[in-house]
Amino acid sequence: MEGREMNGKGKGTKAKKTYSFRTDADRSAARGAKLRFDKAEHASEPLTGRHGRKSVKKRSVARENALNRTAHNQVNRQNKDENTGVQAADFGVETTQDAARMLENGVYSAKLKAHGRDTLKTEANGTSTAGYSSAVEFSGTGRSEDIPMDNAGGEGVNPFSKWRQKADIKKEYAAAKSGKAGAEAGRTAEATGRSAGKAKDAAKEGTSLLDKLTKYLREHSKAILLILLIGLLFCVISGAFSSCSVMFQGGTQVITATSLTAKDEDIIGANDDYKALERALQQQIDNIERTHPGYDEYNYNLDEIGHDPYQLAAYLTVLYEDYTRSEVQGMLRSLFDRQYELKLEEKVEVRYRTETRTETYTREDPETGEIYEEEYEYEVQAPYNYYILNVTLKNKNLGHVITESGGMTEDQQERYAVLLQTKGNKPELFADDAFVASGEYLKYDIPGEALTDERFRRMINEAEKYLGYPYVWGGSSPSTSFDCSGFVSYVINHCGNGWSVGRLTANGLKNICSIIPASEAKPGDLIFFQGTYGTSGASHVGIYVGNNVMLHCGNPISYASIDTSYWRAHFYCFGRLP
Fold it and tell me: Could you please report the per-residue DSSP string of 136-203?
């Protein structure tokens, strides 16, 4: 540490810094060096100078530190091999003493500073209330003290008497301080010794308890072993219950994710409201000729009205979870307006019809010369306006509407597909509805000779993994299910034939194929249809497997015969992949 020693002129000189390794006791002593040893005796001692105050304080602390360090080092040497309780006790004594000395030193320092300021003010005014000498160093104690001088005689005091008085005071003061410091050190050592003794007793008592515990364990080993086995069994059972709890929670989550979560009456009620909108649409179409009279012809081009109720319920569940019937009325109207498009178009044609006309001409009788008029009839093709009202209803399919423009996230699309596959775990709700996808699919045994083509065999092995998957507009993976082009694109990319075409539409798939005549089609070619919904080019695609059969994504993914009136009407072409 840096310190200052006082020279004869009262000026401080800077001490040289030194460094050393210190023990816990040394650190404790160093902390003690910052504290005053005795407040009571010096609290009333006046000081005369700035350097004198510092010298007195530092030298008093130095002697105090030496005494405390000696006491604590002695205790540490005596108990260095004892348990940690002894060390803790010693540390507690040190800490308590340090705290007390710090508090005392702070109070005393404040008093010294205040008194020093008063003294300096008095000297500056040229008056003196007491005579004091400069600091006198006591080499025996390593302290400097300000000693009060006898001022009874003022300036006329005998110098010899003044010297003797100072010497006597010096001896008395030194003896008193030495005795007090020794007593304090003794008390500190005694207290530390008592703490160490108590710690030793505690250690002995702990050793005795350990011996008793060891003896008890030896005498009751069988009972203790039985208790341990019971505890182990309890842990196993608790773990099993915990695992069952986790499994139960996981199972509950799976059931919730695959179930329609609204109340049955709200699910059925919302579907009934949607069907009411459809009935109103049908009535509107039935009354067209009454509400729009005067046309020569009414031309109807109508898609079937209807929807899969599970598509509606699944979509509402994904959006609203536990919805109520009244809560979803706005969404029902929005879906209905997007699903159905009724168009009335008036058309005027100029047509021709055969008309019989009558004309007269004048004739003269050659015998009599009489002139008369005679009528005759003839037919002509006369043009006229023919008024036609075209009534067109497009059903875009509720599933298409939901997945094409329903605004679902990828996670919602996956859950929507799962709800369709499981029917929301409520297959009884709409068991009699004609528009519910049955989930059944047509099976077909592909002839063995067709499977000798390795490329086709790999395609069909991949494609048949998804038989029964529901039709989901825009779907292109097993997690979301498929639409027609999404299904074929996925099979092409994952069957192992080296194709990588990405996600293409039906017309996009047609564009990468070589168009071939129907007479040359073979298993593994693609078959395309047009006009199945409102788009240009190819609108539907399947995988041809021979014998007028294709595997395609209808609702659900299934084998289907192409030799039907519907598919014949919409057939477009065959295509062969590169």
Answer: EEETTTTEEEPPBPP-TTGGG--HHHHHHHHHHHHHHHHHHHHHHHHHHHHHHHHHHHHHHHHHHHHH
Contact between 10 and 135 (Cβ < 8 Å): yes
Cα angle 283, 285, 289; round to 5: 110
Can you tell me the distance from the alpha carbon of 135 to that of 152, in angstroms, rounded to the nearest whole number? 21
Task: Quote the pTM value.
Answer: 0.46
Contact 552, 483 (CB under 8 A): no
Q: CA-based angle 283:289:290, to the nearest 5?
A: 80
Q: Counting Cβ atoms within 10 Å, is residue 64 exposed (0-12), middle (13-18) or buried (19+)? A: buried
The Cα–Cα gap between 245 and 356 comes to: 94
- Nearest partner of 552 among 457, 469, 430, 446, judged by Cα: 469
- Tell me what the mean pLDDT of segment 446-469 comes to: 93
- Burial zone of 553 (CB within 10 Å; 0-12 exposed, 13-18 middle, 19+ buried): buried
SS3 content of the chain, % helix, strand, coil (to 5): 50, 20, 30
Backbone phi and psi for residue 307, each to the nearest 5 degrees, phi listed first: -155, 160
Tens-digit pLDDT profile for residues 480-506: 788 899 999 999 999 999 999 999 999
pLDDT digits (tens, 9 = 90+) for 104-140: 455 445 544 555 555 445 444 554 444 333 333 333 3
pLDDT(220) > 80: no
Extended beta strands in 246-323, E state = 297-302
